[in-house]
């Protein structure tokens, strides 16, 4: 029982990170119908920038995070600008384009920070909490709290602000949105920038939990993407649920199947997505004959 | 659309004729290049370092190149071997065995007479058949018993194998400290698997069954499930078979989960990367089996560390030291044999008796030259020799 | 056209290639030939990737795993089970094909990036398995794979191995090109451009997707076997995601829709990678930049650049001779013998269709007799297109039955209906944009069931012969519709009116018994509408029944013998045009609220 609950806690804290990654994917997907394969590498750049600001310039962690978000937001804008000619035309090409961007970002990170990576000291020094024999890391609580705030803010932005409403409209029908005077390009750029910012948030938070290296994006990205699909691509609350689900699945698979956990995670994921191709909360996308 | 129809009848006849000719000619004279050992002549002696210079494991590769280069520079400064300078070139295998096999052919066709590296057993194993065929001696720095199993007369190790590391460790923990409950956590990569098997063997040889035997993947991030299981067994020590970063994460999470038992492992657990990833407080008391505990072990190591620092402006560590030893042995063998190549050079390497940074080298038929390690304990972030 | 110099250039080029391929090893060192051997393996992988991704439009990020499955299967069967190399090789390719079919199952349910991530996940799962399994040698891999024996030829020599690879490669490329340029490839390209329309002209989408993955995996399998025989060692690291993305870069840079392009990309990048082996980070940076650049500026890759240049030049020069639309040549009228015999050609009985509680169709019954021209009219959102979608198998009816010439076909898939003699056009044109006009027609002319693709392996000559027959018939059909001069053009570059006519020609290519036209006059000018009426009449006179949805009441009045009026998902009137126009309900419906938007059609997941 204790193993069960402790595994659940471990899975949930990692799941919070997957949820942040999945939210970034989903936001870009719902607005542009594009899956950004460079997302995980933007995350990695975010992790590096945050840790660089935090460790070498001794900025407070929160300030370092905000700077990292600003930097990656800019990268997001650049990616969107370069790939704009393909928007609403060929999804496959854009997807390959983002894979190309991912390769570039990784190479750039190696050139700047070296291939070996670095450890980031935890900004929260407090000892783990003890509840009924279970131990909960204080830093994990911070991560979960930040993720929760990010979800609330994002949903509020999309539903309560004019800009957010415009993005919703573009998500539903970009031609109609253009017709009512919404600047689709700008809306997409903002989506991309916010998505990249979310990646940096995830990267910055995950730095002290794990280890920052040029290849750290790999599994985080693929599992984050799987989480977004599990929740229904484009659905923000779904991405959160999907993220937590993948995190927990990951942890239990590691406990039960040991070295084979990765195989098990992807088989389970494939099975679920076969049964519900639109994810747990996804809606059928609309296209006309 | 007529161009879609393809070759016309005349075309296909010509095609067949040429194909015939090609087959016949190919049968008569196989292309290829004449075998030439490249030892004669008075140019520089070409030695290749093959190691990962890019990718995640490139730090090992870079350290190794620095260590080997230090030794070669010393010899060149002293006039080289038999009056010939030594040229050391580095190749990047990217940690990929396929690239390794290509590089093995490359150094063969470019007439390198010996090779140092790689740090990764899988790459070394992939290259071994080609190097054996080309008769290029290779002093590798992996530690997997899998390399020994190849029984190649051209393959040597510049350090002990996992068997030695873990046997020494088990001896210290069980015979010395009289521990009974030992848990294991290791990854499924080449290194982790080798460590797992070697330590398990050392334990069962002493009649001990591990209290827990958990396997993780090389990119696992959360270890709560496995560590909680280990915690429930209340072991007296936890053995880790994993690389620097992952070991660091495991120890950090283990301490957060309330595991207080000391950790024990081989070379990676003695490194700064491990210490920094886990945090200095968390690694206190970690028991490490290594042939090179610190730069202050002996006069030789102090001298090496000083030279290393002077050359590269950074602290020396195990991998650089191993590569330095390997290069010294190779150069000594070249000198002893009058710059022999191929099998003669391999025999000369096997005959070298060398007192190095790792200990006293004496190669046996399997290519292993060192069969002892020392035990160290991490105290306040530094690895010091264990008492007793 | 038949005397073009291409006829002579092609064979000459082939001969030159053979000579170069044969002489190449004589100029290369032992290391260089190894590099070439590896490049050939990647080229084979790239062909498989090109077939699945470029031709069939299936995003397959598991190609590197197919490669791995075959290499591992060869290694395991030779070293663990003691089989001979070639026996193991055959079994390995079969096993890979089987794995390919398994990986294809998700493709039946999802497409594009969804498929991408699922295949990527499965590839990661495979690497994970090889790293763990004792059988696969764990992370250390399997060494000492035996040298493949070949009638006493020593294949441990890289040079002789090269010749083996070149022969296998040439056969594989030839087969790939044969597939891509004949019936199967055409159908796969049609499916890539528009799966719905491809289904409507008789392409069996699920089977085609399976075939695409089967082809990809078999090419991956052959590459894997050659790799195992060449390197004689396998380890998980060789099949990692970075190499998958490298393979993707090869295919994109070379040009994914052209197999030759894929080969050039693979060979080129392999060689460049080798040159830059000591600068791997810069190489990665370079590949990334080139991929992004290619995607934005040259989406068709290196292989597409000549065509793009030609296009630019022609636009500069302004094509000397403008292609023109020729008049339609009427069909031979069929005899009156069949008329009014047997069951009605289309019988719709009490059909209903709901979308999440919204009734799009409710109790619709309709009988169309042989040789009729039936008009279906109604305000926007009255369910006309929904009715067509139900009849042509795009939607499954929630209630009721449909019979085609007396044969119950409720719930049949579009390709089945197409083979039974139903053809349709679409309200928003659905031509295959990356196929030429002629290929658009050829896809529909090809009436063989998709399962007949076994002939590609066992009796390719039959395919070849049939291609020539189809080619001839396509020329005839294009001539009849006055489209001969556009045969080699892509439809998207043509004016709207011509595209409409192409779509009708494509629908007629399947020699249907029943033709459904969804707003064929939309967007046409007066003269074009007149031509359309003439075409439709001629089609009817040739013995094909026509049902058309139309808003142009003038056309409906002059063309249709009977008219059915839909409103709010139900039939409110039926009769001759004159009867219907005066019907009070019809007047009410048309005067009433018609602002209701057309009902959207949910995406059909095949």
Brief overview, please?
By secondary structure, chain B is of the alpha/beta class. Chain B has 14 helices and 14 strands.
List keywords for this structure.
heterotrimer; A: 289 residues; mainly alpha; ABC transporter involved in vitamin B12 uptake, BtuC; two-stranded antiparallel ribbon; 11 helices; B: 388 residues; alpha/beta; Rossmann fold; seven-stranded mixed sheet; five-stranded parallel sheet; 14 helices; Leu-bd (chain B); Peripla_BP_I (chain B); signal (chain B)
Describe the structure.
The complex is a heterotrimer of chains A (289), B (388) and C (606). Chain A has helices spanning 2-32, 39-56, 61-83, 91-113, 138-160, 162-172, 174-179, 184-209, 217-230, 236-257, 261-275, and strands at 129-131, 134-136. By secondary structure, chain A is mainly α. In chain A, α2 runs parallel beside α4 and α10 (236-257) packs across α11 (261-275). Chain B folds into two domains: 45-160 and 298-371, 3-Layer(aba) Sandwich (Rossmann fold); 163-290, Response regulator (Rossmann fold, 3-Layer(aba) Sandwich), CATH 3.40.50.2300. Helix content of chain B is 46%, strand content 16%. Chain B is built from 14 helices and 14 strands. Chain C has two domains: 31-251, no CATH class; 346-591, 3-Layer(aba) Sandwich (Rossmann fold). The longest helix of chain C is centred in the middle third of the chain and has 27 residues, at 205-231. Chain C is elongated, with a radius of gyration of 28 Å. At the B-C interface, α1, β2, α3, α4 and α7 of B face α1, α2, α5 and α6 of C.
- Report the radius of gyration of chain A as a whole number of Å: 19 Å
Most extensive interface between two protein chains, with residue counts: B-C, 61 and 58 residues
What's the CATH topology label of chain A?
A: ABC transporter involved in vitamin B12 uptake, BtuC
Low-confidence stretches of chain B: 1-13, 18-29, 34-39
> How many helical elements of chain A?
11
Write down the domain tally of chain A.
Answer: 1
Principal-axis shape of chain A equals: globular
Secondary structure category of chain A = mainly alpha
Strand and helix layout:
The complex is a heterotrimer of chains A (289), B (388) and C (606).
Chain A: H1 2-32, H2 39-56, H3 61-83, H4 91-113, E1 129-131, E2 134-136, H5 138-160, H6 162-172, H7 174-179, H8 184-209, H9 217-230, H10 236-257, H11 261-275
Antiparallel strand pairs in A: 1-2
Helix pairs in contact in A: 1-5, 1-8, 1-9, 1-10, 2-3, 2-4, 2-8, 2-9, 3-8, 5-6, 5-8, 6-8, 9-10, 10-11
Chain B: H1 9-28, E1 45-51, H2 58-77, E2 86-92, H3 97-109, E3 114-116, H4 121-134, E4 138-140, H5 145-149, E5 155-157, H6 162-176, E6 182-187, H7 190-205, E7 212-216, H8 224-233, E8 237-241, H9 244-256, E9 263-265, H10 272-278, H11 280-283, E10 287-290, H12 299-312, H13 318-336, H14 342-351, E11 353-355, E12 360-362, E13 374-379, E14 382-385
Parallel strand pairs in B: 1-2, 1-3, 3-4, 4-5, 6-7, 6-8, 8-9, 9-10
Antiparallel strand pairs in B: 10-13, 11-12, 13-14
Chain C: H1 6-23, H2 30-55, H3 63-79, H4 85-109, H5 112-132, E1 142-143, E2 149-150, E3 153-154, H6 158-181, H7 183-193, H8 195-200, H9 205-231, E4 233-234, H10 241-254, H11 259-275, H12 280-297, H13 301-317, E5 346-355, E6 358-368, E7 373-377, H14 384-391, E8 399-404, E9 407-408, H15 414-419, E10 422-424, H16 437-445, H17 455-458, H18 460-480, H19 496-509, E11 514-518, H20 526-541, E12 545-549, H21 553-559, E13 562-567, E14 570-575, H22 577-581, H23 584-591
Helix pairs in contact in C: 2-6, 2-9, 2-10, 2-11, 3-4, 3-5, 3-9, 4-9, 6-7, 7-9, 7-16, 10-11, 10-12, 11-13, 16-18, 16-19
């Amino acid at each position: 029982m204790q193993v069960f609950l402790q595994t659940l806690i471990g899975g949930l804290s990692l799941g919070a990170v997957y949820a942040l990654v999945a939210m970034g994917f989903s936001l870009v997907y719902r607005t542009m119908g594009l899956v950004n394969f460079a997302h995980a590498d933007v995350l990695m750049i975010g992790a590096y920038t945050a840790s660089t600001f935090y460790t070498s310039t001794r900025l407070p962690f929160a300030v370092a995070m905000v700077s990292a978000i600003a930097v990656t937001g800019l990268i997001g804008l650049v990616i969107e600008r370069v790939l704009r000619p393909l928007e609403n035309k060929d999804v496959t090409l854009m997807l390959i384009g983002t894979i190309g961007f991912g390769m570039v970002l990784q190479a750039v990170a190696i050139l700047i920070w070296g291939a070996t990576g670095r450890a980031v000291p935890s900004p929260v020094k407090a000892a783990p909490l003890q509840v009924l024999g279970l131990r909960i890391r204080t830093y994990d609580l911070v991560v979960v709290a930040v993720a929760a705030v990010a979800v609330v803010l994002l949903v509020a932005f999309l539903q309560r602000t004019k800009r957010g409403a415009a993005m919703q409209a573009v998500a539903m029908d970009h031609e109609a949105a253009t017709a009512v005077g919404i600047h689709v390009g700008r809306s997409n750029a903002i989506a991309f920038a916010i998505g990249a910012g979310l990646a940096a948030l995830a990267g910055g938070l995950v730095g002290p939990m794990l280890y920052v290296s040029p290849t750290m994006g790999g599994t985080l990205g693929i599992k984050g993407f799987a989480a977004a699909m599990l929740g229904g691509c484009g659905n923000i609350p779904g991405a959160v649920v999907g993220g937590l689900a993948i995190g927990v699945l990951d942890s239990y698979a590691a406990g039960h199947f040991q070295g084979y956990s990765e195989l098990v995670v992807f088989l389970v994921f494939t099975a679920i997505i076969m049964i519900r191709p639109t994810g747990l909360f996804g809606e059928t996308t609309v296209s006309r004959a | 659309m007529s161009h879609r129809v393809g070759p016309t009848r005349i075309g296909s006849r010509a095609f067949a004729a040429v194909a015939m000719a090609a087959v016949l000619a190919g049968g008569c004279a196989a292309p290829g290049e004449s075998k030439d050992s490249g030892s004669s002549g008075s140019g520089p002696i070409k030695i290749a370092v093959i190691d990962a210079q890019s990718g995640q494991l490139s730090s090992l590769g870079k350290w190794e190149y620095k260590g080997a280069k230090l030794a070669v520079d010393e010899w060149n400064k002293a006039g080289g071997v038999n009056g010939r300078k030594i040229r050391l070139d580095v190749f990047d295998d990217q940690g990929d065995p396929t690239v390794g096999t290509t590089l093995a052919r490359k150094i063969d066709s470019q007439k390198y007479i010996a090779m140092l590296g790689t740090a990764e057993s899988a790459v070394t194993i992939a290259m071994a058949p080609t190097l054996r065929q080309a008769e290029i001696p290779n002093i590798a720095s992996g530690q997997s018993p899998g390399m020994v199993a190849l029984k190649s007369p051209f393959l040597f190790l510049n350090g002990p194998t996992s068997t030695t590391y873990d046997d020494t460790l088990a001896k210290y923990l069980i015979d010395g400290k009289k521990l009974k409950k030992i848990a294991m956590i290791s990854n499924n990569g080449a290194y982790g698997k080798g460590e797992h098997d070697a330590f398990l063997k050392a334990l069962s040889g002493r009649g001990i069954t591990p209290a827990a035997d958990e396997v993780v993947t090389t990119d696992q991030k959360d270890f709560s499930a496995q560590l909680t299981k280990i915690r429930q067994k209340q072991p007296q020590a936890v053995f880790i078979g994993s690389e620097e970063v992952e070991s660091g994460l495991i120890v950090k999470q283990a301490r957060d989960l309330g595991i207080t038992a000391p950790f024990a492992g081989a070379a990676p657990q003695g490194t700064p990367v491990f210490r920094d990833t886990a945090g200095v407080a968390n690694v206190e008391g970690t028991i490490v089996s290594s042939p090179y505990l610190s730069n202050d072990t002996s006069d030789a190591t102090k001298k090496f560390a000083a030279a290393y620092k002077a050359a590269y402006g950074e602290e020396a560590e195990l991998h650089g030291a191993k590569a330095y030893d390997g290069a010294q042995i190779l150069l000594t063998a070249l000198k002893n044999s009058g710059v022999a190549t191929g099998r003669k050079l391999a025999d000369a390497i096997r005959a070298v008796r060398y007192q190095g940074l790792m200990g006293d080298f004496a190669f046996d038929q399997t290519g292993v030259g060192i069969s002892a390690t020392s035990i160290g304990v991490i105290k306040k972030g530094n690895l010091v020799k264990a008492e007793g | 056209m038949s005397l073009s110099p291409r006829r002579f250039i092609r064979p000459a080029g082939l001969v030159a290639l053979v000579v170069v391929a044969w002489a190449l090893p004589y100029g290369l060192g032992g290391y260089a030939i190894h590099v070439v051997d590896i490049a050939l393996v990647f080229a084979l992988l790239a062909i498989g990737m090109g077939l699945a991704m470029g031709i069939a439009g299936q995003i397959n990020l598991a190609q590197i795993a197919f490669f791995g499955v075959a290499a591992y299967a060869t290694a395991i069967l030779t070293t663990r089970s003691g089989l001979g190399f070639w026996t193991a090789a055959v079994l390995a390719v079969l096993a890979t094909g089987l794995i390919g079919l398994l990986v294809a199952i998700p493709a039946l349910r999802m497409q594009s990036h969804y498929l991408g991530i699922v295949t990527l996940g499965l590839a990661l799962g495979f690497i994970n398995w090889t790293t763990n399994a004792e059988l696969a040698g764990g992370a250390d891999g399997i060494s000492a794979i035996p040298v493949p024996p070949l009638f006493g030829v020593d294949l441990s020599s890289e040079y002789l191995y090269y010749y083996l690879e070149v022969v296998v490669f040439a056969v594989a490329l030839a087969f790939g090109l044969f597939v891509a340029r004949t019936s199967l490839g055409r159908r796969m390209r049609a499916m890539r451009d528009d799966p719905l329309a491809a289904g409507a002209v008789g392409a069996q989408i699920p089977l085609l997707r399976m075939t695409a993955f089967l082809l990809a995996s078999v090419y991956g399998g052959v590459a894997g076997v050659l790799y195992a025989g060449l390197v004689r060692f396998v380890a998980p690291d060789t099949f990692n995601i970075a190499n998958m993305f490298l393979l993707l870069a090869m295919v994109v840079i070379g040009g994914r829709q052209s197999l030759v392009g894929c080969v050039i990309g693979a060979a080129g990048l392999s060689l460049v990678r080798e040159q830059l082996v000591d600068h791997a980070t810069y190489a990665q940076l370079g590949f990334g930049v080139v991929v992004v650049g290619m995607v934005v500026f040259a989406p068709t890759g290196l292989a597409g650049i000549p065509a793009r240049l030609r296009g630019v030049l022609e636009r500069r020069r302004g094509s000397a001779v403008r292609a023109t639309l020729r008049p339609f040549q009427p069909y031979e009228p069929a005899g009156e013998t069949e008329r009014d015999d047997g069951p009605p050609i289309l019988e719709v009985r009490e059909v209903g269709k709901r979308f999440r509680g919204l009734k799009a169709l409710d109790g619709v019954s309709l009988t169309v007799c042989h040789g009729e021209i039936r008009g279906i009219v109604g305000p926007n959102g009255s369910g006309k297109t929904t009715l067509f979608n139900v009849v042509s198998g795009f939607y499954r009816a929630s209630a009721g039955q449909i019979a085609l010439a007396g044969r119950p076909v409720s719930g049949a898939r579009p390709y089945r209906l197409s083979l039974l003699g139903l053809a349709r056009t679409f309200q928003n044109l659905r031509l295959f944009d990356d196929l030429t006009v002629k290929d658009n027609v050829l896809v529909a002319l090809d009436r063989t069931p998709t399962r007949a693709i076994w002939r590609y392996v066992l009796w390719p000559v039959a395919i070849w012969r049939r291609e020539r027959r189809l080619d001839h018939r396509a020329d005839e059909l294009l001539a009849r519709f006055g489209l001969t001069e556009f045969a080699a053009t892509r439809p998207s570059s043509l004016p709207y009116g011509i595209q409409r006519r192409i779509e009708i020609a494509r629908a007629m290519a399947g020699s249907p018994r029943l033709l459904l036209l969804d707003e064929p006059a939309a967007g046409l000018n007066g003269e074009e509408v007149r031509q359309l009426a003439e075409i439709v009449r001629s089609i009817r006179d040739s013995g094909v029944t026509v049902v058309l949805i139309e808003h142009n009441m003038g056309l409906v009045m002059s063309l249709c013998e009977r008219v059915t009026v839909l409103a709010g998902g139900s039939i409110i009137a039926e009769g001759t045009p004159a009867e219907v126009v005066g019907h009070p309900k019809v007047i009410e419906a048309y005067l009433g609220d018609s602002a209701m938007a057309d009902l959207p059609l949910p995406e059909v997941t095949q």
